Amino acid sequence: MQNLEQNQIPAAERGFFNLMSLAIIALVALPVGIACLILGFGMGDSPCVMCWAERITMIAISLIALFILRYGLRPGYVAALLLMACWGMFNGFIHYSLDGTFGGYLDIKQGFGLEILGAHTQLWVIVVDFCVIAFLAVIFLCSKNLGEIMKKSASGEYGEFLRYLPLGKIANLIFIVIIAANCAQAFIVSGPPPYLGSSTPARLSLDPAKWFWEKDHWQSALDFRFDWNPELPDLPN
What we know:
By secondary structure, the protein is mainly alpha-helical.
C-alpha cells in the first residue's frame, strides 16, 4: 500500500473530497445547527420525540459522510447514506401527516414546529433529506474517476491526504461543536436515560425548575400501526 502525496492526487479527486466536505458543513451547520442554536436556544423551541428521530437521522448522515472523508469512498458508506436519507424522508412524511397536511388542525400557533419561510419544520425535514440524495447525485455527476476514487479508497492509498484535508478538518470541528450543543439540548429537553423524548415538550429553558422529563412511552406496547390500532374500551357484555 502506497500513500499518495498531495501533489500526486489528481485535481478531480481532490475536488470530490472537497465537495463532500462542503456538503457535510452545509448539512450540519444549516438544518441541524439552526434547529438547535437558533430555534432551540435562541427561540425556545423544543423538539418532540419525532423531531429528535429526524434530527438524529441527519446527524447520522453527516457522520457517514465524515467516514467517507476519513476512509475514502466505499460502497457501504454510499448505501448507508442513501438508506438513512430515505429513512429520514419516511419519518418526515409521517410527522408532517400528523402535524402538517392532515393534522394541521392541531397547530393553532401553540408550538407544533416553528415556521421557516412559511413552512413548518416538519416539512423542511422532507426537503433536507431529499436534498441529501440530490446533492449526492450532483457531487457524483461533477466528479470524475469515481471508479478510481473507490479503488484507491479500498487500498488506502489516500492515507495522509484525507487525514489532513483542510476542509475535512473544518467539517469535523463544526460537527463536534453542533453535536455538543445538541447533546446539551437533549439533556435539558428529554433528560438522561431511562427518560424519553416527549410528544409535547415544554418550552426550552435554562432554568432547571422548568425542565420536564417523562417515561410515558415505556408504558405503551410496540405497535407498528400506532394510532390506527387504539385500545378498545371496556364495553358491557
